[in-house]
Amino acid sequence: MSALRHALLGAPLALLLLAAPAAAQVDCSDGGTTQADMNHCALATYREADATLNDTWAEVRGQLGTDSAVYEQLLAAQRLWIEFRDAACAAEAALYEGGSMAPMVESTCYTRLTEARTQDLTNFLTP
């Protein structure tokens, strides 16, 4: 597993996993009906966004090559973005600290920022 993936699936996400319901059969077509279901569905949506980000990152890395100066700059920016994402989403979730919807808020933030970052990374792809 790449260092980037490890960073993307760091400690904050591990905490989110604890909030997911034990039952694997959650219908996310409507976002879930209980708070536990909503937490689970929000996490599932984030995982999809994360997978897309990692696919895009691999494509960018392949086009730029890992020996280029642009790649090194982008890698440094990506590492800083991960720190920003984690801090920003922790702050959003802190508004609901101790509440059952905090994991959903954090996952939703992760999804929103990850989707935006994926779009940003596509700017480095040549048509």
Concise overview:
The chain has 127 residues and is mainly alpha-helical. It contains 5 helices and no strands. It has helices spanning 3-8, 11-19, 35-64, 69-94, 102-122.
Describe this entry's structure for a reader.
The protein is an all-alpha fold and about 130 residues long. It has a domain at about 65-120. Helices cover about 70% and strands about 0% of the residues. The protein is built from 5 helices and no strands. The protein has helices at about 5-10, 10-20, 35-65, 70-95, 100-120. The longest helix is centred in the middle third of the chain and has 30 residues, at about 35-65. The protein is elongated, with a radius of gyration of 16 Å. The model is unreliable at about 1-10 and about 15-20 (pLDDT under 50).
